[in-house]
Amino acid sequence: MKKKILIVEDDNLISTIFRMFLKELGYDLLGIVEDGKEAIRMCEQLNPDIVLMDVHLGGDLDGIQATEIIKTKFDIPVIFLSSDTEESTIQRVINTHSYGYLVKPIDKKELGISIELAFYKHQFDLDQKMRETRFRNFISDSPEAILVVNENGLIEYLNCLGLKLFKTAYIEDLMGLPLLSFVEEEDHADFKEKLDSSLTMEQGIEYTHLKLRTIHGDFIDVGLTGAQIEFNGKKNLQLIIRDVTQEYAYRQMLAEKANIINNFYDGVVTFDMNGKVRSWNKGCERIFEISEKEAIGKFYSEMGISKNQKTFAEDLLIPTNKKGNLELDIVMERNGSSCVLNVFSSLLRNDKEEETGIVCYIRDISEKRKHELLLEESEQRNRDLINAIPDLIFVVNKDGIFEDYKLDDESVLALRKDSIIGSHISDVFDNSTLKEVESKISKVLSIGFMEKFKYQMDTAKGLLWFEARITNLGNEKVLVLVRELLEIKKA
């Protein structure tokens, strides 16, 4: 198909020569116009393949002004024709991004070559624009944030997710800015080296983690990869970026938890379903005197807890599976002596709720057991001592409620032994004595010093005199020691 040519020339002689040249070269001449406005109208109506444009035209628009409009509205390639070689004119022509500049007088062969070059260069530019349009559409719809950086490290393009990543809706906030200006200082040097290598040595960027600053100044954790592409007719670097802030924070949290667990004073060990050790913290190293390296992969039975491997199922797996969790004490031989381990176990499950093993929290309670035995012995001695005291002993709280007592003979009280706990002091004392008792209890609780007083009570043995001593027991309770005053009775 013949290429369609429009001539814009106000010199009739020159336009006649061009008409003859074009006919001889086999082109289809759409017409000849003499001013810029008419050239624009003809381009809109006839859509020529090439426009031959005189630079200096009469009328409101010169050739350069008309070309700018034609390029913007119709994207038709223009070849300038002129005898003007002034620097200022040439610079104006360059700024229009025209497809050629022929200096008059023009040779027919030169004209033909210029037309062919302009046509195929324009076709190449159209193809390039189409590819870039498809590329832009592709990255705009991409589920990943995509950013294009030019050879100078400046941001050339971002898709919608890229804008969202930087927390802006306007590409103008980022276009033309150095990508490195958004990289946190501690990552700056390392990423600059990778970016420079990729741009100069035509190699990609392998997965890299770094912190990027958003438009608002806050930092996000990202993971990115890069590859060389051609964009706007130049070599550029395409970066695929993913926001990993939450993922990174989660990994950090898991690492911190693992570090905390590993440094527990008490032991934490996990077993698989066969009783093989999967993890072993420092607490376990202390309790069992076995290093993590030695313990991983060993069986429950090899920990010195049991000689029979089947006891993993019997001791832990079956009971834990049945109850959901289990607490038991195990006696283990260590360095020729027995030690007592308190083990709390629970099942481990994956995200599909499948059982994958057991985690055990282990405490060496050998010393605790010794202290408990000593405490029990001490408490028994105290009980024996208290029982040897002939006095009546009561524990009363701040509200005047009896919480405990020691009483050998209930005949000295107005209450039965089985009704003492939970009763109120008003059930024991008459109104005149009650006020004094309440006052003494309040004073002891607030000041802390012992108080004593004498009172008379009608009992099963008759009217008796008693002396009560009240001391602060702590926890808003008082200890009341009551003794019968036999000397008053004798008197």
Automatic annotation (TrEMBL):
<dbReference type="InterPro" id="IPR001789">
    <property type="entry name" value="Sig_transdc_resp-reg_receiver"/>
</dbReference>
<dbReference type="InterPro" id="IPR035965">
    <property type="entry name" value="PAS-like_dom_sf"/>
</dbReference>
<feature type="domain" description="PAS">
    <location>
        <begin position="131"/>
        <end position="202"/>
    </location>
</feature>
<dbReference type="GO" id="GO:0000160">
    <property type="term" value="P:phosphorelay signal transduction system"/>
</dbReference>
<feature type="domain" description="PAS">
    <location>
        <begin position="253"/>
        <end position="298"/>
    </location>
</feature>
<dbReference type="InterPro" id="IPR052048">
    <property type="entry name" value="ST_Response_Regulator"/>
</dbReference>
<dbReference type="InterPro" id="IPR000700">
    <property type="entry name" value="PAS-assoc_C"/>
</dbReference>
<protein>
    <submittedName>
        <fullName>PAS domain S-box protein</fullName>
    </submittedName>
</protein>
<feature type="modified residue" description="4-aspartylphosphate">
    <location>
        <position position="54"/>
    </location>
</feature>
<dbReference type="Pfam" id="PF00989">
    <property type="entry name" value="PAS"/>
</dbReference>
<feature type="domain" description="PAC">
    <location>
        <begin position="324"/>
        <end position="377"/>
    </location>
</feature>
<dbReference type="InterPro" id="IPR000014">
    <property type="entry name" value="PAS"/>
</dbReference>
<feature type="domain" description="Response regulatory">
    <location>
        <begin position="4"/>
        <end position="119"/>
    </location>
</feature>
<dbReference type="Pfam" id="PF00072">
    <property type="entry name" value="Response_reg"/>
</dbReference>
<feature type="domain" description="PAS">
    <location>
        <begin position="378"/>
        <end position="448"/>
    </location>
</feature>
<dbReference type="GO" id="GO:0006355">
    <property type="term" value="P:regulation of DNA-templated transcription"/>
</dbReference>
<dbReference type="InterPro" id="IPR011006">
    <property type="entry name" value="CheY-like_superfamily"/>
</dbReference>
<keyword id="KW-0597">Phosphoprotein</keyword>
<dbReference type="InterPro" id="IPR013767">
    <property type="entry name" value="PAS_fold"/>
</dbReference>
